[in-house]
């Protein structure tokens, strides 16, 4: 066994049944433990009076040779008591003339440093090695809700896209752009977006209301050993964990129902958008009745909501020669006012209707 610093000659003599010696190698002092002083014979680890194995990764791994503390015994303390009293025990016993590190410890020095490192090793192994501590349920670490978040976001997004044929023309109209052509294209994908919306919504409800996995242990089923070592009791840990978990579950369900309401509101937008813009009946210019004005009625095919009528109306008003235009979604027709002295701009009107994604014919 090689140590970074030299040990007194009394240490190796007490470690095995054969005398040891100090040698100089590569500028560092080392203490042979497994070598014979008078021959080339090598002694096995089992021949040591006290086992040595601080740097091993498994097994007992003695730390304090005076009072019998090891990594294994410290881990057992964590399992049974939730903390380790090894350091306190050693300090208390050191007050009595019971410390024999010079002769019992292979390093020939005080073991407090090794015990401190051993406690950290025991905590890490208990936390990471399931085979040592068995299945542990930690309510503080709630199951990943990434899938639930994706389902909620997908629900709202697909519902918005399903109703884009209605709200997009109105939005573009506010900035002076006709989006009827885009809306007509989106209308063809509306059934697909509706199906996707309900698919995401079903997934969101599954994640929110699926049975939760639960596991219990006789002890320490809430707090990990590290928390217990810091003085946090199982009751405190479990109570706070349960409260946090239930509040999070309740919040997720509230958010889910809010997302559901929002999705339904967007999906049904074509059915009530007319009520939202009903004031246009009074604010818009009425059809002019005058001997100098000719009103032409055109039947419009392809409108799916009141938003289409508003967008098309704005497009027809921009046609040269048209004094006024009024599109009635309920009757699926448009009434255009032109000067009686001038021919009706039929080609320009039907071109505007076609570019908007609709079809029309004069009634």
Automatic annotation (TrEMBL):
Membrane topology category: Multi-pass membrane protein
SUPFAM superfamilies assigned to the protein according to its UniProt record, in alphabetical order: HMA, heavy metal-associated domain
Location in the cell reads: Cell inner membrane
Residue spans crossing the bilayer: 156-183, 189-209, 254-273
Name of one Pfam family that matches: MerT
GO MF, one term, reads: mercury ion transmembrane transporter activity
The GO cellular component terms are: plasma membrane
UniProt-listed InterPro entries? BFD-like_2Fe2S-bd_dom_sf, Heavy-metal-associated_CS, HMA_dom, HMA_dom_sf, Transprt_MerT
Q: Which UniProt keywords apply?
A: Cell inner membrane, Cell membrane, Membrane, Mercuric resistance, Mercury, Metal-binding, Transmembrane, Transmembrane helix, Transport
Annotated HMA domain ranges read 294-361
Q: What is its main location?
A: membrane
**What this chain does, per the record?**
Involved in mercury resistance. Probably transfers a mercuric ion from the periplasmic Hg(2+)-binding protein MerP to the cytoplasmic mercuric reductase MerA.
Q: Which family does it belong to?
A: Belongs to the MerT family.
What protein name is recorded for this chain? Mercuric transport protein MerT
Q: What is the lineage of its organism?
A: Bacteria, Pseudomonadati, Planctomycetota, Planctomycetia, Isosphaerales
């Amino acid at each position: 066994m090689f140590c970074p610093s030299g040990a007194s000659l009394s240490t190796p003599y007490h470690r095995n049944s054969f005398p040891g010696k100090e040698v100089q190698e590569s500028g560092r002092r080392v203490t042979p433990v497994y070598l014979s002083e008078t021959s080339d014979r090598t002694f096995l680890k089992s021949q040591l009076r006290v086992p040595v194995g601080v740097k091993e990764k498994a097994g007992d791994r003695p730390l304090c040779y005076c009072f019998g503390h090891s990594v294994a015994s410290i881990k057992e303390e964590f399992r049974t008591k939730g903390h380790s009293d090894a350091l306190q025990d050693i300090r208390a016993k050191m007050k009595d003339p019971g410390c024999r590190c010079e002769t019992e410890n292979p390093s020939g020095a005080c073991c407090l440093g090794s015990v401190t490192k051993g406690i950290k090793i025991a905590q890490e192994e208990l936390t990471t090695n399931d085979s040592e501590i068995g299945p542990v349920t930690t309510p503080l670490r709630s199951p990943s809700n990434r899938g639930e978040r994706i389902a909620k976001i997908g629900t709202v997004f697909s519902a918005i896209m399903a109703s884009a044929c209605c709200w997009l023309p109105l939005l573009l109209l506010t900035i002076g752009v006709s989006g009827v052509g885009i809306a007509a294209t989106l209308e063809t994908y509306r059934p697909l977006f509706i199906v996707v919306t309900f698919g995401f919504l079903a997934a969101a409800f599954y994640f929110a209301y699926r049975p939760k996995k639960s596991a219990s242990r006789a002890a320490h089923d809430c707090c990990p050993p590290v928390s217990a070592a810091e003085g946090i009791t199982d009751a405190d840990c479990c109570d706070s964990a349960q409260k946090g978990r239930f509040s999070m579950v309740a919040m997720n369900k509230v958010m889910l129902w809010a997302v559901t309401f929002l999705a339904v509101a967007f999906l049904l937008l074509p059915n009530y958008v007319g009520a939202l813009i009903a004031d246009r009946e009074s604010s818009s210019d009425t059809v002019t009745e005058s001997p100098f004005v000719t009103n032409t009625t055109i039947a419009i095919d392809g409108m799916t909501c009141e938003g289409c009528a508003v967008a098309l109306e704005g497009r027809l008003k921009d046609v040269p020669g048209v004094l006024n235009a009024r599109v009635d979604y309920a009757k699926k027709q448009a009434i255009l006012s032109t000067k009686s002295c001038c021919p009706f701009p039929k080609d320009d009107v039907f071109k505007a209707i076609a570019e908007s994604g609709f079809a029309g014919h004069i009634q």
